[in-house]
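Think of the structure tokens as a kind of shorthand, similar to the way a musician reads notation: each symbol stands for something richer, in this case the local conformation of the backbone. In the example below we present two proteins back to back. Begin with the first one, reading the sequence and then the tokens, and try to describe in your own words what changes along the chain.
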Amino acid sequence: MNRNIFLPGLKDVKINKVETCEHSIHLYVETPAKPHRCPRCGAEVRKIHDYRVQKIQHFKWFERPTVLFYRKRRYTCQTCGKRFAEENPFVERYQVESGRECAKHSCQNVQRPGFPVWGLGFDGDPAF
């Protein structure tokens, strides 16, 4: 069975695995492969050199800290030999926390009239 879930700040990201640990939630994610431009020579690059796993602190999800384990691709330019990491929408180079757009959203338990036992509440703009 396929399941789709929307998480603020993780648009176009494939969630491979979800683990619920004692005090946190671990999400194993990756982005779809696509061609990139070499930062050195500007050539279109499709050749994947290797993968690295980057640990990223994300927003709270149902009152628990969320940790992303991002499977990041590294590409090799066939023209000049430059190796570089793919671009992604949620973390900049050398960051260990997801961006400000992600941080302003927080999924949490809410109990209000009209909601079932649990629901989603968002800090910030829910139309993100």
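Once you have a description of the first chain, move to the second and do the same.
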Amino acid sequence: MARSDQREAQRDCSAGPSLVAAYAHADRAGRNVADLSRFFMEVFSFRQVGVFGNGELSWLINDEGFEIILLQEKHLVVGDQYPPGFHTGFIVPTREDVNQLHAAIRAADFEAPAPDMIQRGGPSAYGFYSIPPGGVTIEVSTWVK
């Protein structure tokens, strides 16, 4: 997605002026840092800046400068979600973009349900939620006007 498209998508979601200049990073804990890193690199084109602590921390960055720090969470067990309902969302401009990212997830051999309408009490969206290795839920969606 072009940077101008991302800015337009962000502007469409804005409730008003903000003092925050940029959303710089997300720090997420999961069960499998290596596989979770591979997921973000293969699907969302992040690149790995570094790996620390015997693989227990992975630092990723994308072309726009957004960083994701992935940490090994020793207390999560298979089936746990950290914390329940918490997720990282990727809002894209169009349904075609949602479908393209869904195809990329499947092509990288990760699981993702087919995109559909998402009703969560606010504006309608088209997209899907997926839990890649590591137990970190991600959302890919676009607003439906």
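Compare your description with these statements about the second chain. DSSP finds three helices and eight strands in the chain.
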